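Trying the structure run again after the queue cleared.
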Amino acid sequence: MSLSLMMWRRHYASFDARLAQRAAFEAEASDMPPPFRPMSKQRFAAEVAGFSWQRRVWRVDVHHTFIPDHARFREIGGLGCQEGMCRHHVVERRFDDIAQHVTIAPDGVIWSGRDWNKMPASVGFGLNRGAFMLEMIGNFDVGHDRLDGAQLETTFAVVAAVQHHFKLPAEALLFHREVPVTEKTCPGTGVEKRTFLAGLSEHRARLALLTSA
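Done. C-alpha cells:
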C-alpha cells in the first residue's frame, strides 16, 4: 500500500470518528428534558423571591440574541427560539447548558433558562461570577429590530426583580459591549445605556409606590 493511500485512509478514519463523536453528543443533547417554561412578569418576580438562592448576585448582564431576531421569533415562537439557542450553546459551543438564566421574547413572555444557581456563560474572561444573565430576542443594532413595548417593559421588570431581591442599585447592570475584551455591540447600538437606566429607574420607582401603598 502506498504512503499516500495510507495517509488518505487515516485522515478519513479520523474524520469519521469525529463525525460519530459529534452525532453521539447531539443525540445525548437531544435526549435532555426541555427545561424551558414561559413566565409572566408577576410569576418571575414571585419565583425570584421564593427561589433557594445558593449564590450571591451583584449585577444583571443584559444581552440581545442578535440571532434569532424578531422575524425568526414570528416564525418559530419563543420556545423554538429558546430550544434553538440551547442546541447552539450545548452542541456548537460546548457549554454545559444554555448560556442565559432567562430569555425575554418580543411579546413580553419570559422563558426560563439555565439554573439560577449556576454562573451564566455571559461575558467570559473570568467575569461571570455574581452575574444574572438575560437575553432579549432580537437584533437591536440601529436599522434592525426595536426594543420597545412589552419586551422593554418586561426587561425592566426582570432586572428590577433581581436587583430588588439582592438590594442592588439600578446601576448594578452590565451591557455586554461594556466589557473591554469584546468587539460586540450587544445589546445593540440602538439601545442606549443612559436611556435604559432612566427607564429602569422609573420602573423601580413605580414598583416602590405600589408596594408602599
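Helices lie at 3-30, 41-50, 70-92, 149-165, 193-212. Worth checking whether this holds up in the mutant runs.
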